[in-house]
Amino acid sequence: MNRYACALARTYRRTMKPTNISDPGYFHKVVDCQWACPAHTPVPEYIRLIAAGRYSDAYLINWRSNVFPGILGRTCDRPCEPACRRGRVESEPVAICRLKRVAADYKDDISARLPQPAKRRNGKRIALVGAGPASLTVARDLAPLGYSCVMFDQDTQAGGMMRTQIPKFRLPSAVIDEECGYILGLGVEFVGGKRIDSLTALLAEGYDAVFVGCGAPRGRDLDIPGRKEAAQNIHIGIDWLASVSFGHISTIGKRVIVLGGGNTAMDCCRSSRRLGGEDVKVVVRSGFEEMKASAWEKEDAMHEGIPIFNYLVPKEFTHANGRLTGVVFEQVTAQYDAQGRRRLAPSGAPDQHFPCDDVLIAVGQENAFPWIERDIGIAFDGAGMPKVDPATMGSTHPQVFFGGDAAFGPKNIIWAVAHGHEAAVSIDKLCNGEDVHDRPAPAVSVISQKMGIHEWSYDNEIALDRRYRVPLRDKVVALADIKAEVELGYDGALALAEAGRCLNCDVQTVFTTSLCIECDACVDICPMDCITFTANGDETELRGRLKAPATNLTQDLYVSDALKTGRIMAKDEDVCLHCGLCAERCPTGAWDMRKYLIETTHAGRPCPQPAQSAA
Predict the structure, then answer these.
(1) What are phi and psi of 451, to 5 degrees?
(2) How far apart are CA 269 and CA 280, in angstroms?
(3) Closest CA relative to residue 378, chosen from 202, 138, 135
């Protein structure tokens, strides 16, 4: 082989291969919001339904994937929103979470459209420990298939942490009752007020599988001087919130310090303001940006007049005559080593003393499994957590599965739902003698949205509107009643306007090489300069010489087969607005706009054939 041929061969080996758009995962990754959602809710699909006023249909799309649209529409940690494509063209993403609530608030009676209790049982019995979102999701998926699901909880009502740890001014009881009721109405047996004290004893009752979804029920304490002497006025945050939820606590001192920087701390401080706290402070050992609380939770707390003090570490609880008088703090600074690891070092500034009447400790939660015997085949790690397969949610005991906070420590509701779906698939396979590691493929359809030469079945106009704020109850009124919901939600007009900000990133640009005449009209019309016709090459080199260099390596390049001139079409999926202008301008129909819908397969649901291939 001569030198030229060798060079040509090396170049060929380095060039990018044509993109396989028939791979279900390819376009799924482009739908950033759905990709980021642990339950893979088809976000653009339900937003379009909301824009069309089809609230019940939008609710049911949510219900199938995330189970609790009304609850999550108020409380979700919103992993979808930082991923939202809108955030690449302006500062704020689409209000995906609050639009979910719109579907729940304005839907009709959807009871008749939900699964009905199984007419015949399949003879399999499933025990669910805890009645939180993970266990409820497992029951939702399995009960309609004929499984006898028995759910145990130490509380007398289902809901778990959704009911006990989220204040009513964020999540009204009626919403919890409704969405838990949909699941219990499937024939699930709920045994409230029942604490499980032995997993060995539970397995001995003959259950075919056990799902552990008991959450992370123990709040961390602070063992510093004065803790025991002032114990009467020092409370563990999650326990205190539960007591408030059940009406056991209705007042607090006028001066309150909340220790911790997570969402529980934000719930504690805001609840304190409604129970008589006039001077409520949040004190955090980290910086403001490093706080674990969601940005909007911090914003809500500060809106209600609650200051947040950062880089202060509690050293001592001061007390007099058996009563708490305040907290002494050491001021620290953040220092980083060569690997970027942070340590907090004393600043040298004098200690600070904050007087107070009560302290709420919200510095984290821990799992506690004293009721799981260590000799029944369940392995635990050094931190006391069960060893759980993240794909199947199975433990080292073939009949025992975990989910939610009980599996991997404190997270949030949407992760608990995702765990529940996967555990239900595993339990269904286990009970049918199948391999639990054989996971079902998703259902995928890719359908052209063309209705005419320049007309699509979706609104592809790019709205220039900024994010619409959710109306709030008057602050004076809200702070006077701990059960008065603060956020009032979007009305129909605001919902329509906010829905219009969605860029329809599930409507994909699909390119047909054989139809392209290389006129470059699509290149000229693209507002984001994301289409380039060029020679093929190594991905790193190719990304750098596109019309607009593709710097986000988490999004792929869409690369075509070689065209007649030897060039390839390369499209940066990262910045595409899915506006359809390339397809409108193309004189040969080489570009098409096709709606990509992926639905994660749940327990007992065979994967239907795709309506149309993407390729």
Answers:
(1) -120, -10
(2) 7
(3) 202
What tokens were used for 412? 């949030």
Residue 515 DSSP label? G
Report DSSP letters for 505-521, one per residue: TTEEEEE-GGG-----H
Bridge partners, 179 (sequence order)? none
Chain segment 117-152, per-residue pLDDT in tens = 999 999 999 999 999 999 999 999 999 999 999 999
Structure tokens at 80: 């979808």
CA distance 377 to 429: 20
Report CA 542 to chain centroid distance, whole Å.
34
| Joined tokens for residue 250 | 């209705």
Tell me the per-residue pLDDT of 506-545, one tens digit each, with 9 for 90 and over. Answer: 999 999 999 999 999 999 999 999 999 999 999 999 999 9
**In the predicted model, what is the mean pLDDT of residues 592-599?**
91
* pLDDT tens, position by position, 486-503: 999 999 999 999 999 999
**8 Å CB contact between 460 and 593:** yes
Identify the CA nearest to 41 among candidates 31, 49, 51: 31
> Please, how many CA atoms are within 13 Å of residue 595, restricted to the half-sphere of its CB?
19
Q: Residues 598-614: pLDDT tens digits?
A: 888 899 865 544 443 33
Please tell me the predicted confidence (pLDDT) of residue 7.
47
Torsion over CA of 494, 496, 497 and 502, rounded to 10 degrees? 130
Please compute, for residue 514, the number of CA atoms within 13 A of its CA located in the half-sphere on the CB side. 1
Nearest CA to 139 out of 152, 156, 123 is that of 152
Residue in the block written with tokens 């063992």: 223
**146 torsion bin: left (phi>0), alpha (psi -120 to 50), beta (else):** left
Neighbours of 219 (CB within 10 A): 23
Find the helix packing angle between 43-51 and 55-66, rounded to 10°: 160
Look at residue 11 and tell me whether its pLDDT is greater than 50: no
Q: Residue holding tokens 């552990």?
A: 212
**Average pLDDT, stretch 581-585?**
92
- Confidence bin at 90 (pLDDT 50/70/90): confident
In terms of Cα–Cα distance, which of 607, 600, 211 is closest to 430?
211
User: For the segment 435-488, what is each residue's pLDDT rounded down to a tens digit?
Assistant: 999 999 888 888 888 776 667 777 777 778 899 999 999 999 999 999 999 999
**362 with 241: CB under 8 angstroms?**
no
CA–CA distance from 213 to each of 64, 196, 397, 459 (Å)?
Answer: 20, 12, 16, 42
Tokens at 298, concatenated:
């911090």
| CB count in 10 Å sphere of residue 10 | 9
Tokens of 7: 């060079």
CA distance 250 to 482: 9
Task: Return the closest-CA partner of residue 189 out of 133, 128, 114.
Answer: 128
pLDDT in the model for residue 13: 52
CB 483, CB 174: distance < 8 Å: no
Indicate the DSSP class of residue 111: G
With 0-12 / 13-18 / 19 or more C-beta atoms within 10 angstroms meaning exposed / middle / buried, residue 474 is: exposed
Q: How far is CA 372 from the centre of its chain?
A: 29
Q: Give the C-alpha separation, 307 to 286, whole Å.
A: 15
- If you average pLDDT over every residue of the chain, what do you get? 92
Could you give the CA distance from residue 27 to residue 35 in angstroms, rounded to a whole number? 9
What 3-state class would DSSP assign to 164? helix
- Distance CA(266)–CA(275), nearest Å, equals 14
Please name which of 562, 531, 533 lies closest in space to residue 548, comparing C-alpha atoms.
531
Q: What is the distance between the terminal CA atoms of the chain, rounded to a whole angstrom?
A: 36
